[in-house]
Amino acid sequence: MSAITIPSPVQSAAEDAESIGKALQGNAPAWLDGGRTLVRILAHRTAAQRSGIRRAYAFLFREPMLNSFRQRLSRHCPVSLDFWKAIILWTMDPAERDANLVHGALKRRDGDYVSVLVEVACASPPDHLVAVRRAYCSLFACSVEEDLASCSAFEQPLKKMLVSLVSSYRYGGDCVDEEVAELEASRLSEGIRKKEPHRDEVIRIVSTRSKAQLGATLQQYRDDHHGTDFVEDIESQCSSQFAKTLKIVVWCLTSPEKHFAEVIRQSIVGLGTYEDMLTRAIVSRAEIDMRQIKAEYRVRFKTTVTRDVVDDTSFGYRDLLLALVGSEEEGLENMRRCIPC
Length: 341
Hints:
With about 350 residues, the protein is mostly helical. Helix content is about 70%, strand content about 0%. It is built from 21 helices and no strands. The chain has helices at about 15-25, 35-40, 45-60, 65-75, 80-90, 95-110, 115-120, 125-140, 145-150, 160-165, 180-195, 200-210, 210-225, 230-235, 240-255, 255-270, 275-285, 290-300, 305-310, 315-325, 330-340. Helix 6 packs across helix 8 and helix 11 (about 180-195) crosses helix 13 (about 210-225). The longest helix has 16 residues, at about 180-195. The two termini are about 25 Å apart. Residues about 330-340 have low confidence and may be disordered.
C-alpha cells in the first residue's frame, strides 16, 4: 500500500507547475525554500498527478521539468546532490525510472547492480515489466535483454536466469495447480539437496511461474521439509553468487517487503550511508508497499525506517525521504495485524 499522503483538495497541475517554476527560479540554496516547495508538492502527488504536472510545466515554461532539475543537479553542492538525484527519480514516469535504473546498473555495474535487475524484473506486476522494457527500447535504442545478454559482468548460469527474468511475462491471476506445486517443490528440493540451485528446472520455475503458483510451490516445499523455508535452505546450504541472487528473486516475487527492508537497512548501517541504494528502495516502493516494508523493518530490526532515515540523512534529502516513507503509525498498525493473538 502507498505511504504518501495526498492533500484534499489538491491544486491543479498548472498551479503546481507554476509553483515549482517559481521555486526553481529563486536564489535560495536547493535544500532550503526551493527544495521545500518541491517536497511539499511532488512528494504528495500520485504518479498520474506528477505526470500532469510535468506536462503543465513543459507548456508553461517551454522546457521539460526534469531538464530543469538536471540543470540544478549539474550545479550541485555536495549537500544537495542526493536531494536532486532523488527528486528526479521520484518525478519520472515509473516505467522510465526503472528503465533508467536498469540501464545504470548494466553500464556502471557498481553497488548492488544485480539487485536492481531482480527488483525491476520480479517485484512489480507483469504489465509494469513490459512497460519498463518498452521504455528501455525507446530511451536507449536497444532492448534490456540485448544489453543484459551482452554484459560481460555476468557469467553463466547467473546470466541465463537474469535474462529469463527480464524476458518473462507471468500470469497475474490467482489460479494455482496443486499437482504442479507438489512436483516443482520436489524439483527445488533436489536442486538444494545436491547443492545445484542453478539447475535449468529451478531457473524455469522461478522465471516463468506466476507469483501465486510459486507461492503454492514454496508452501509445499515448506510442508515437505517440516517447516523449513526454501530461502533458509539456500542460505544454509549454498553460498555462490547465483544462490544469493536466487534468494533475492524468491523474496522479490513472494515477499518484496522482506527484500526492501533489508536493502534500506544495508544502506544505512555501518559507517556512512549508501544514498543511491536508500533512494532507490524508498522512491521505487513509496506508492506500492512502503507500509508493509515499514512493518517488516520494525519487526526485524527493532527500530523504524523513519528513525534511521533521520539519523543518517539531512536537509532536503531527509525531508523528501520522510515524506515518501510516511507515518510510522501506519506501519505499526500493519505490524499489529500480523502478530497472532
